[in-house]
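cache lookup: miss for this entity combination. No prior model stored, computing from scratch. Input as submitted by user K.M.:
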Amino acid sequence: MANTSHIAKEGEIWAVGGGKGGTGKSFFTSSTGTQLAKKGRRVVLVDMDIGGANLHSFFGIGRPQKSLTSFFEAGSKLSDLTVGTELPNLSLITGDIHSIASDNIKFGQKLRLFRQIMKLNVQNVVIDLGAGSHANTLDTFLIADKMIVVIVPEVIAIENMYHFVKNTLFRKLKSTLKDYGFKEIVQHIWDRRQSYGIKNLKDLIEYLKASFSYIGTILDSELANFKIHIVVNMVRSNQDILLGASIKSVLNKFLGISILYSGYIEYNDVVWKAVRERKPFMLNYTATGCAKQVETIVDNIMHGREVSVPGG
Amino acid sequence: MKDEDIKRWQMTLEVGPNASVHDIKNSYLRLRKLYGGGSIVLEPLEDEFPEKRRMKILVDLEEAYTRLLELHRNRTSPGRPAGEAAEAMAVGEGPPGGPATEPGAPYAIEETVFSGPALRRVRERLGIDLIEISKQLKLRTELLKALEEERFEALPEEIYFKTHLKSIAACLDLKPGKVVEDYLGRFREWKRAR
Ligand SMILES: Nc1ncnc2c1ncn2[C@@H]1O[C@H](COP(=O)(O)OP(=O)(O)OP(=O)(O)O)[C@@H](O)[C@H]1O
Ligand SMILES: [Mg+2]
């Protein structure tokens, strides 16, 4: 695992993931980046969807001249790979279109990438993680100051999101304790969890705290910063909106994870219409409910606020 | 009441320190429905978290709700009959899936779905005999027994025993709407399966 906690960061890093494909991560990343830029911030978007990079399409960019491929294969500097957009203070680093598989990124490459992401001379970096819960994806998620998951109101998306969040937390646990000399112990106990009477991550954390008293304080302070922002996309009813509140409750009560329900975005055909027309959504459809909702979400994430849900 | 208790109840009900009675009630109803089971948000975690855990949350919700309302009542109007808080307590026939009983009725806390056996358990916890109910409601004990044992083939048409269910619910201090809804749901499922 890459420990990058000692690197001084330039801008605030937001990362957008969530496990399931097609939930609107790229739409949300592009819209959020545009919104932050409209608020006057200098922003770079990074497409880390290895193998499925398409963030550039949301800006009407057909075939990008530069991409992460040259970062990995030719040793280019990340800051030399930005591509401009309609907004002068918003640029984009396109994903690796020649799709090397995520597994092929070596540890050293990953660390180099993380360092350079942190050194980008901007106020906000927004990373599109793509789908899946690959170790590299989780590690990228973990370097973010704001960890954001985008889900849609359906069972599989919720299942995948739990998987994603649990794996992220597990990886966080391991990397935290590794720094304190507990190299393999977390994995060791987890692999034998049955004999320890451990059923879930919450049990594991409680077990660790009870068994090694000084771990308790470390975990408490590290996990206090472990906050996940939830965005529910493609909502069609009040019930869909409430899902965000339910997930927050369940992740908190069952796994002890802090969640901020940042907001929801309604389903609207203009979203894919904008992509088809190659028009950045937040510049061309500002009057829509979706655009207003993205604005609210961005403000909420910036200030650590939450959306209010309709009465139960 | 100790501060840390109050904090705990607020955390359980997921409300802030300044929540109004209205907020408390809304949050309680929402969570009660969520942890009542059957939500797509809970299903994926069922293997990791035993049923006991969910039940415990339901019990905690019940306690937190009762206590926080008590607290409000004491704060707002010492001595006087509690206005807002009392209203919130009387959830009455509220939305389906809401609380099954008047909050604080400990004999029904564990029941989330009012099946026949659940009705029997509540009755037994209250220490009421079938004969007592039979006398009071002027219903045959055989019918009451069939209801509790869910021997659906022994029951009359739905419209008849629906009224009976309502009066039984009232006897057991349960919300009639919820009891009828749950029980008929099970009955209809059985009928469909036949
Ligand atoms: N709120 C919405 N209303 C209607 N359509 C939407 C909405 N959000 C996204 N879409 C559409 O859903 C599709 C998937 O969106 P997007 O590509 O952003 O998902 P993704 O999570 O990035 O997918 P992948 O996992 O494949 O990268 C697109 O066609 C997009 O236009
Ligand atoms: Mg995408």
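stored under new cache key. The mean pLDDT of chain A is 90.
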